[in-house]
Amino acid sequence: MDLARSLREIVGADRLSVTDADRDLHAHDDSYNEPVRPDLVVWPRSTAEVAEIARLANETSTPITAWGAASSAGGHVIPVRRGIVMDFEQMNRIVEVDHANFQAVVQPGVLRLDLEDHLSRQGLFFAPDPGANATVGGMIANNAAGVRALKYGATRDNVLGLEVVLANGSIVRTGSRSIKQSSGYQLTQIFVGSEGTLGLVTEATLKLRPIPSHVATAIVGFPTVEAAAAAVADIMGLALEPAALELLAADHLRWMNEDEATSFAEVPTMLIEFTDASATSVEERMEAAISICRDHGAIEVGAVTDHAERANLWRVRHGVRHRYRRRLAGGAWIGMDVSVPVASFAELVSYAIASAEQNGFPGAVLGHAGDGNLHLGLGYPPGDDDARSRAHLVSGLLVDKAIELGGTCSGEHGIGLDKRGYMTAEHGRAAVEAMRAIKTALDPHNILNPEKVLPEP
Amino acid sequence: MDLARSLREIVGADRLSVTDADRDLHAHDDSYNEPVRPDLVVWPRSTAEVAEIARLANETSTPITAWGAASSAGGHVIPVRRGIVMDFEQMNRIVEVDHANFQAVVQPGVLRLDLEDHLSRQGLFFAPDPGANATVGGMIANNAAGVRALKYGATRDNVLGLEVVLANGSIVRTGSRSIKQSSGYQLTQIFVGSEGTLGLVTEATLKLRPIPSHVATAIVGFPTVEAAAAAVADIMGLALEPAALELLAADHLRWMNEDEATSFAEVPTMLIEFTDASATSVEERMEAAISICRDHGAIEVGAVTDHAERANLWRVRHGVRHRYRRRLAGGAWIGMDVSVPVASFAELVSYAIASAEQNGFPGAVLGHAGDGNLHLGLGYPPGDDDARSRAHLVSGLLVDKAIELGGTCSGEHGIGLDKRGYMTAEHGRAAVEAMRAIKTALDPHNILNPEKVLPEP
Lengths: 457, 457
Hints:
Two copies of one chain form a homodimer.
Chain A: H1 2-11, E1 16-17, H2 20-25, E2 40-42, H3 47-59, E3 64-67, E4 84-87, E5 94-98, E6 103-106, H4 112-120, E7 124-125, H5 136-142, H6 149-152, E8 159-165, E9 171-175, H7 187-191, E10 200-207, E11 209-210, E12 214-221, H8 225-237, E13 244-248, H9 250-260, E14 269-276, H10 279-295, E15 300-304, H11 307-318, H12 320-326, E16 332-339, H13 345-358, E17 365-368, E18 373-380, H14 385-404, H15 423-427, H16 429-442
Parallel strand pairs in A: 2-4, 3-4
Antiparallel strand pairs in A: 1-2, 5-6, 6-10, 7-11, 8-9, 8-10, 12-14, 12-15, 13-14, 13-17, 16-18, 17-18
Helix pairs in contact in A: 1-3, 8-10, 8-13, 13-14
């Protein structure tokens, strides 16, 4: 194969593979979508190599799919048009930590937990936390968010600048080290969330935060999920600026108790967290939030500030994906993600539970509630096509409802393959055409992660 | 003129003008740049009219320059290629205030102070505050920022969605009412800061905040500007999250005392403000900040929390532009704006003062210091070409220095005409070409505010 030979000239024989094993490993992400094997996998080690590969692919109209940890939830990195998978595993350096300016420069392949480790020793953290041990490049591609986005924003809000290789191999630097900037088109934000369809991120300058000196966490049980969701809107309405407001249906607590022999109350539950440089401020806010929860009929309240106790509470939230999966017993699932204005969150939650139950799914709702961001697990047994159709039906109904409420088909998972069909409903034809014009301008031969994000023309 | 006849069919005779008076009024902004009169001025009243005008202009390759309050500081709205000025004065409605979600939908012509008035009666505010009574459309075009950006971000961070008419007349809706969104390319942020070169904003959904219940403001005098700048880096390094950290050279205080018979200490001064839902938190933070200032040799400290006293302190800052201008006695000036990482702010300030003084300008520095954003007034007498050249020299030196320090040629004023020449130095050729590709994709006939933002090809 000519392409393989040319690529081998760029990266050497060690960092290119056409074996079935390597192609299989790069054929799927963390979703139910059918795997598709790329023709080959390359592991670049430098921006110059990425640029050379891009030029070669562009000349030969060969698709390139950028690859991080494959933890995406919607088919984002499945190389549906085959070609090259570019695995950034070997570009995983933390290039610089600029403590004085709270910034770090990293390569895209660095894993979130490795970065967290490295930064925590200096009293700093990078705020986005999607749960999975994603790569920073993957988080940038999908604009990952997670539990801390409520206070600190999504990945988008924590990236100051990028180095990006375009489809034609040119190397673009976006943004600057200045927090404030009003200098031309905001290229950084065009690439963040573009899921590898507009360019290949080879370096990122990230905004860091000092680890807050005071943290208070509470676990609050409610009689119904709806009561909890209503409390969320009131807490947000008081502008207490919580760092996290997580909602969990009772099932998640029951599964936790079953799997880990804990004894959490098996009721709809909210996790509330405040962080601050002032202990008093944290306490005052938590008191106000808990008082709102009581007004909404909270039946169980436990508040802690100790680090180990807090970590223990957070296990309730962080393990949900694994516990849910374990119960699928080999079945597949759709991990739904939609987001609405927070005042409509309770309505969305009620609708989600009702639609799921009517179609035979337990109401495994879960939400970054303060952001109006709802997750719903829709699992189905292997080979059960009927259940599979019903899962897709519920998923579709939920997206329609979110859009009707002024929201979005994805708060944080991104579009990938799964949500392409909703882009026009959410954004309208003119906006999708504007996006397509940008895609065509930056990637005229459509080599970068083709058939993702934008719907069929 | 055929164009005038066609436009009259769209907006009627009342809302189109070819008079010299109206063309003169729409020939300049708030900068030293030479005025250029447009061929005609139109005042649309609806998105549909804007779209019809755009279609007509696109077919005839007629430039359109969008017009707000003309308070831009770099020639942004001067119609250098003549054609149509589209004045949004009559599209100034506050369409909706969504109190539950802290959002407002407004037309682009609404004036910042009118919006502030309207919102304050509901306990809300829109955070960006560039000083001038700009229109919201103009603030979006330039990504305006101001004193509160330190805590609340620039306009960019406070716009959730837009309605935009493209050059071809198609009407695009960007973003959603959901705070969190990961759904396709971030079109909103492509248009914010694009200075009317990519589309015509006809409606905006803004993020609001509740007016904080507790505010503390301090005025701190320092022996030197450099000492004050050094204190800034330390306050930011402690992550106290100030809402404002403004630096003023001694001249500004002297001019204030002269003009308003006040008795402020005529020394380099910092204004510090903290806002919060908790009184204790505000006090604790202010105490920590003042203690840092004392470590840097602060010689005067006054702290207030009373509303009237705070307003009085802020007069020191808010009037600087007028007081500076008054002293120019008919001369012109360059209102410089550059921004750097905050740890390099002190170095930038020292450099600015030295360069200005060496070239015969008093050191009228001023800064949104917590953001690393420095302003410097470079005034010159009418007809003094030598002083004018020296002003441009200092301005250029300061931009070079800011870029060298990892910063930007504009923190908040934007590019307009003045900074086009620095785009390649700051962003590199490849990034500028990527910006140009986007411009060409969205405005192929280059009708929208031509000869702005991007350098000559």
